Amino acid sequence: MKGHMNTDIGDIMIDNEVLAQYAGASAVECFGVVGMASVNMKDGIVKLLKRDNLSHGVNVTIEDNKITIDLHIIVSYGVSISAVADNLISNVKYNVEEFSGIEVKKINIFVEGVRVID
């Protein structure tokens, strides 16, 4: 399902992949987030995604024209995961809602790994 908005001059449809890319880009800008993660379900290997594959660490679903976002992240060693999560949720929610004009109902965060950053 796609995000949908009605305007006076027509309808606007936003693909989930567009929302996932935007959410991923917003997430990696947050303090304490090293990057988005891809998890291979077959062997359980977690991979840090490059900048051009950010949406692979994001899952977007839309129900009743409200967005739910799952973010799979890798955090920096030594940061407070709850502080990073609070910041991540508020930034991604604000950015995606401003970008799309559609309400973000829920953001789920999955911390898939920790990296030491020099």
Which tags fit this structure?
alpha+beta, single chain, two-stranded antiparallel ribbon, five-stranded mixed sheet, elongated, Alpha-Beta Plaits
Question: Could you characterize the architecture of this molecule?
Answer:
The chain has 118 residues and is an alpha+beta fold. It has a single domain, classed as Cation efflux protein, cytoplasmic domain (Alpha-Beta Plaits), CATH 3.30.70. Helices cover 28% and strands 43% of the residues. The chain has 2 helices and 7 strands, in the order ββαββββαβ. Strands 3, 4, 5, 6 and 7 form a 5-stranded mixed β-sheet that branches. Strands 1-2 form a two-stranded antiparallel sheet. A hairpin with a 4-residue loop joins β3 (33-40) and β4. α1 (16-28) crosses α2 (81-100). The longest helix has 20 residues, at 81-100. The chain starts with a strand and ends with a strand.
